[in-house]
Amino acid sequence: MSWELLLDPSLVRLAVSMAVPLALASAGELLMERAGLLNVAIEGMVTLAAAGAFLGAFASGSTGVGLLVGAAAGAGVSRLLAHYAVAWRRDQVTVGLTLYVLCVGLASLLYRLVVGVRLTPPRVETLPPVPLPYLENLPVVGEVLFRQHALVYATAAVVVALHAFLFHTSSGLRLRAAGENPVAADTVGVDVFGLRVRAAVAGGVLVGLAGAALPFTFTGTFTEGIAGGRGWIALMLVIFGRWTPLGAAAGALLFAYVEAFQFKLALLSKAVPPQFLQMLPYAFAILVLVRAYRGAEAPQALGKPYDREART
Amino acid sequence: MTARAVARWQAALAYAVGLAAALGVLAVLVVALGGDVLAAVGSVVRASLGSAAGFGQTLNKTAPLLFGSVAVILGLRAGAFNIGVDGQIYAGAVMATGVAFLLAGWPRPLAVPAVLLAGAAGGALLGAVPGLLRARAGVNEIFVTVMLNFIALFLVEYLSTGPWNDPTAGEAITRAVPPGTTLPLLGTRLGAHSGVILAFAAAVAVWWLLYRTVFGYEVRAVGDNPIAARLGGIPVGRTVALALIGSGALAGLGGAVEVSGFHYRLILGLSPGYGVMSILIAVLSRRHPLVAIATSLAFAALVVGTDSLQRSVGLPASAVFVVQAAVLLVLLASEGLRRSP
């Protein structure tokens, strides 16, 4: 195998576009985790948002409506999770897993109710590439980065903006304080409860957009397994990126590359059964996890409900 | 009434409300699909509990759910979330099918235990990966178990469409296992297989393990307070790893029972979400293996009942997830309302 194959521009271009759902979902998860909320419902939220986005676009004929429905689905589930976790102080993993099951069921149920049973699954329009003027003509980089669809540029902007917000604004500092040491934050007047809920809604919007990106970038259809573990991988990318948006996005690119590479291999090689190639991204995820956990430090109060009256 | 009695009544009330919520959600779905609610309720009850054959179907669904939920419970008691029950069921089913093919012609009393042991070994193998990674490298078991679900699923897809495929079926299913390797039925009228007895036995065995053995005490100590357990001299990492291996073995046994008791072959859709249902059952049963027997029976009846609605009013199979999750959400909400002012 030669190096040209590994760095083939069409392969890298595909990887960049496949990184979008992973990067958006991990950005949303990270925002919540920085405020102290662990969202293990993320795989279900991605699935439900994908269904919502598809059905929104299917019913209205507009991709924009689809994106809105997807974002709203993510935000709604996330808000529900926050209510259980913040106001009712229930165990976040238990609530998250329950919502995961709910979302997965709801996604295919809604699809079935709206679309019904058909021989050929209906399609919605996928996002067209939007070449950026001048930049698209740069050698190699132009093709790889600047002839992508609009969500790619939006994702890049979101990641950079989130990074700047978390680490270079006082609101970001307050949000991180709510996730690191809610008692201290509360003492100096930070609204820990309100911040966690707002972080959940904003994070849910990003996770919802990640789900919406799935039907709109690849096949234009919805299937039950559309998330394919991307939500779980996004959860993992947060650790991989050490709870920084830029780090998680770098991880998203790495994973998307492995995923795209596996497609490429499947086309080239008939000797290896495709199922073994499809295992690659997941096996790779386990290997990367082992390294990612070395010295990883989560926000101190991650997953712990804040109770003003509890003794610490 | 004492505070304890009040708490017990409140818990009972919460379960009743949860059940009502489940039926409510179901009723809404039936109406949305244009069906008749009363006829639907009648059909659910008849299909799952109202006849010998229906009850037999419920028992057959109970087996994988009970194996799965006691597997989750064993992990949870050690403080580990085993989200990989689906993968472990598949791993167990793969091993059981493979060994069954090898043991064609063996006497049943030798072949069946060998097949079941192979299933348990397959599940244990898949449970060992997250167990060891958590003990050695501190890796969260949730991720590892989820990733292994996908890997196991692709392995089953490969085997059922490739080397073990039944060419006459035209689907992702393997050839039937040899007749001498299958579990006997419990009477012909019921149509239930003896695997459900094994599942009940497994639940009792896990209860005995947790409450009557030193290892079980250590598991519960580690799950309740790992720091105190470590200071008390319990090897925390090893205990969690062993609990996850045991958890995988239980789920793998469930997979083997599905192959040799129900399907008689390995199929791609062997587990229609038993893993996620097992998590809900484990939490609903308050992590108690004996309570899980009752909860698994109830969930199995619900699955069989909604399956019948699938035929009559076209309710999609996934609706059962919504109903089950709604029950747990109502219970969690009632806990939340009780404990916050």
Short description:
The complex is a heterodimer of chains A (312) and B (341). Chain A is mainly alpha-helical and 312 residues long.
Structure description:
With 312 residues, chain A is mainly alpha-helical. In chain A, 70% of the residues lie in helices and 0% in strands. Chain A has 13 helices and no strands. Chain A has helices at residues 3-6, 9-34, 42-60, 63-87, 92-115, 141-145, 150-168, 170-180, 182-187, 192-217, 230-240, 245-268, 274-292. In chain A, helix 2 packs across helix 11, helix 11 packs across helix 12 and helix 12 packs antiparallel against helix 13 (274-292). Chain A starts with a helix and ends in a 20-residue tail after the last helix. Chain B is mostly helical and 341 residues long. Chain B has helices at residues 3-32, 37-50, 52-77, 85-102, 108-137, 141-161, 195-212, 214-224, 226-231, 236-263, 274-284, 289-312, 319-339. Chain B is built from 13 helices and no strands. The longest helix of chain B is centred in the N-terminal third of the chain and has 30 residues, at 3-32. At the A-B interface, helix 5, helix 11 and helix 13 of A face helix 5, helix 6, helix 11 and helix 13 of B.
Topology readout:
The complex is a heterodimer of chains A (312) and B (341).
Chain A: H1 3-6, H2 9-34, H3 42-60, H4 63-87, H5 92-115, H6 141-145, H7 150-168, H8 170-180, H9 182-187, H10 192-217, H11 230-240, H12 245-268, H13 274-292
Chain B: H1 3-32, H2 37-50, H3 52-77, H4 85-102, H5 108-137, H6 141-161, H7 195-212, H8 214-224, H9 226-231, H10 236-263, H11 274-284, H12 289-312, H13 319-339
Helix pairs in contact in B: 1-13, 2-3, 2-12, 3-7, 3-10, 3-11, 3-12, 4-5, 4-6, 4-10, 4-11, 5-6, 5-10, 7-8, 7-12, 8-10, 11-12, 11-13
Q: What are the low-pLDDT stretches of chain B, counting only 5+ consecutive residues below 50?
A: none
Secondary-structure element order of chain A, as H and E?
A: HHHHHHHHHHHHH
Beta fraction of chain A: under 5%
Mean pLDDT level of chain B: 90
- Largest sheet features of chain B: none
Measured by residues with Cβ under 8 Å of the partner chain's Cβ, the largest interface is:
A-B, 45 and 50 residues
Shape of chain B: globular
Overall 3D shape of chain A:
globular
Distance between the termini of chain A: 58 Å
How big is the Rg of chain A?
20 Å
